[in-house]
Design brief:
The protein is mainly α and 72 residues long. Helix content is 74%, strand content 0%.
């Protein structure tokens, strides 16, 4: 779960961050609660999941829409 949260958090920075961010947070939290041996990777997944949501919030506030895109 720790590795999956890391990968989903990393992927969420590029695409579908509204879905992948929360999933990464949940998976990382479960992995940490279960006492995973990969605490570093779970912590990175948790951080990346939060970063996904922050990036989404910033980009949404820049163009005042629920969706965002990099094209002007």
């Amino acid at each position: 779960m720790a590795v999956a949260s890391f990968v989903l958090g990393l992927l969420g920075l590029l695409v579908l961050n509204i879905f992948l961010g929360p999933i990464a947070i949940v998976l990382a939290s479960i992995a940490l609660l279960r006492g995973t041996r990969r605490k570093g990777r779970a912590a990175l997944g948790l951080g990346l999941g939060v970063a996904d949501l922050v990036v989404l919030a910033v980009l949404m506030s820049m163009d005042n829409t629920v969706s965002w895109g990099l094209a002007g």
